[in-house]
Specification:
It comes from Hemiselmis tepida. This protein is α+β, with helices and mostly antiparallel strands and 343 residues long. It is built from five helices and 22 strands. The chain has two domains: 249 residues, Rossmann fold (3-Layer(aba) Sandwich); 32 residues, no CATH class.
């Protein structure tokens, strides 16, 4: 999208929305100014500083907007814009800002001398910086990476970490246009579901992603998942918590991990994807939640005295009753996962 502002014509503005946007999204036709080629984007600036909030390291990666002078009466600049169908993409004259919260997981692992994979602090943050510097598409947002001091395996994430994420989102909510959470896949669906209820009146996009294969491997899904998530998080007008994996954007609390050995590890059995990435981005706009009207609130108090019971035909009723009658000090809630009782 190119916007030409003619300074000598009472602020008249002409837009060209023809052609194709990033990732091949068609944008429709409109008026077109004089044909010009954009200048190459300026070199990105990187600043690194300690984060006093959690002891982690924050790295800001800034991508400048190109400015092409036409003459003394007009100028043209590239406008940051979103990806998606009509009514879904965001169009803005400022460059968006994205915050990545990096908790750990397979994506940032590297093998040691024995070939065993381990979390390597700072490695993935450096790869994000290098990856964005290679990109010449200036629609990408300015990215800040906040790496937590203790990187976790997915299986180690628990409600305390959910509260940490929620508090960080609340703390930085007004500073950024979108958020990405990188973590392990084992508890990603649980984390996304929990956050969807902890973040009330969420008006911005929060996307969780990770990878099945580490970023350092040749045949890895890490780079594609990461770059697509960065592109979508500030571009789509989706006000909810999502999971992005293998070119599909799912509603977070409808997602489950279905396959530990495939790139399409996540599925949403009873709800279609919100968006699918191919030659273009197909957004199911009719499925999107409306923008909230209330003030953004975060709830972090969670009571873990509950038990989930999956019923099978040979379940012991007496054992279930003993658990139910054990008192609230032991169990305050029972969630029963039942099988069908016939047609």
């Amino acid at each position: 999208v190119w916007v030409a502002t003619l300074d000598g014509c009472d602020g008249g503005r002409h837009k060209r929305r023809g052609g194709r946007g990033p990732l091949g999204v068609g944008l429709g036709g409109a008026e077109r100014p004089r044909a010009l080629s954009p200048m190459a984007a300026p070199a990105q600036k990187v600043s690194e500083r300690g984060d006093p909030l959690s002891g982690g390291m924050r790295k800001d990666i800034h991508a400048g907007l190109p400015l092409v002078e036409l003459d003394s009466k007009a100028h043209i600049h590239q406008t940051t814009f979103g990806i998606g169908s009509s009514g879904v993409a965001k169009f803005t004259d400022k460059q968006s800002k994205l915050l990545i919260l990096y908790m750990g997981g397979t994506m940032g692992m590297k093998p040691d001398e024995k070939g065993e994979l381990h979390q390597v602090p700072g490695y993935l943050t450096e790869q994000v910086e290098n990856m964005l510097q290679e990109q010449h598409d200036t629609f990408l947002p300015t990215v800040t990476v906040k790496e937590y001091p203790s990187l976790l395996h997915g299986c180690d994430v628990n409600p305390e970490h959910w509260a940490l994420i929620a508090n960080d989102l609340e703390r930085h909510y007004d500073e950024y246009d979108g958020f990405v959470i990188i973590m392990g896949t084992d508890t990603m669906a649980y984390t996304a579901s929990a956050l969807s209820f902890m973040l009330e009146n969420l008006a911005k996009t929060v996307i969780l992603t990770g990878s099945q294969v580490p970023y350092c491997k040749t045949f890895s899904d890490a780079r594609r998942n990461l770059l697509a998530t960065i592109s979508l998080a500030c571009a789509l007008d989706i006000a909810e918590v999502c999971v992005f994996f293998d070119d599909k954007l799912f509603r977070g609390n409808r997602t489950r991990k279905a396959d530990a050995g495939a790139f399409d590890a996540f599925t949403s059995p009873n709800f279609p994807p919100l968006a699918t990435l191919g030659l273009s981005v197909q957004v199911n706009s009719s499925l999107l939640l409306p923008q909230p009207r209330g003030r953004f609130k975060v709830f972090t108090k969670m009571d873990c005295k509950m038990v989930v019971v999956k019923f099978v035909p040979i379940f012991d009723v007496d054992a279930l009753l003993r658990l139910a009658n054990s008192g609230t000090d032991t169990c305050k809630a029972l969630v029963l996962e039942l099988y069908g009782t016939g047609n």
